[in-house]
Design goal:
50% of the residues are buried. Strand 5, helix 4 and strand 6 form a beta-alpha-beta unit. A nine-stranded mixed β-sheet has the order 3-2-1-4-5-6-7-8-9, sandwiched between helices. The protein contains eight helices and nine strands. It is of the alpha/beta class. The longest helix is centred in the last third of the chain and has 17 residues. 37% of the residues lie in helices and 20% in strands.
Length: 261
């Protein structure tokens, strides 16, 4: 059986809705084998993040060594990387092992509004890690930090995608959920703008949507789909997960990752 393998490099979410837990659920739903490297342990739930404990660059590097020297992944998804040393370690190991289909979700703030990245790590993320991605998937607030200006229209989204991609070799997917009444996302791929139109699902439970989307893209790339098809398939998957209407917890709850299983 030729099962494809996808590695998530991200933080752990004790409530199971985001981070590595959401990534693994998403990957299993796509029938790929999930591997994981833990960058941080978070104490969080649907209401907020109580505490974050960084795993440390050394153990992150050793986890990556163990994965790449035994079960080599067909795609890699990178989520929460909160400090400079860990970012540099991940970049070094990616260069050492040379995996394909690298999806980077520049996680900076949780759904509940809690900061998940040290402020001094932003420049390192932009200059060291993001250029290694085949695609990066910022939401509007994250894209604003990356491009340096406010995004308040679809024209701004296109301008931001160009600015962000200037020093990257991969594609940029800006998620428009924070901006419009729809759920339209913009992919800037090989100099072209591709809009993915979508309906806004009336569901306040959006904990882990960014993690889920990026993991779904990585899973589709591992399965052999091209970038534009992978984004479309991932968007369809997350729309279905939102429509499933799971309602857990006192705050912004998780998605039903198993909605089509």
């Amino acid at each position: 059986m030729d099962m494809k393998k996808v590695l998530t490099i991200a933080g752990s979410d004790s409530s199971g809705g985001a981070g590595v837990q959401a990534d693994i659920k998403t990957m299993m739903a796509h029938k790929v084998f999930a591997l994981s490297v833990i960058t941080a342990i978070t104490a969080q739930n649907t209401v907020g993040v109580d505490d974050v404990l960084d795993a440390g660059a050394d153990i992150v590097g050793k986890q990556m060594d163990c994965v790449f020297t035994d079960i080599f992944p067909d795609a890699v998804k990178i989520g929460m990387v909160s400090n400079i040393e860990t970012i540099k370690m991940i970049a070094s190991k990616l260069k050492q092992y040379g995996p394909k289909n690298i999806v980077i979700d520049p996680v900076m703030v949780s759904t509940s509004g809690c900061a998940l990245m040290h402020p001094d790590a932003m420049d390192t993320l932009i200059s060291v890690l993001l250029p290694l991605g085949d695609i990066i998937t910022p939401n509007i607030p994250e894209a604003e930090k990356l491009c340096g200006f406010q995004i308040s229209s679809t024209d701004d989204m296109q301008r931001a995608a160009k600015v962000i991609s200037a020093n990257l070799s991969g594609s940029v997917l800006i998620k428009g959920g924070h901006l419009t009444e729809t759920a339209d996302d913009l992919l800037y791929d090989k100099g072209e703008f591709i809009w993915y139109r979508g309906e806004r699902v009336d569901n306040p439970n959006t904990h882990g949507t960014g993690c889920t989307l990026s993991s779904a893209i990585a899973s589709n790339l591992a399965l052999g789909y091209d970038m534009r098809t992978s984004v479309r398939n991932a968007k369809d998957y997350i729309t279905g997960a939102l429509k499933a209407g799971l309602d857990l917890g006192r705050g912004s709850g998780p998605l039903n990752h198993a909605w089509r299983m």
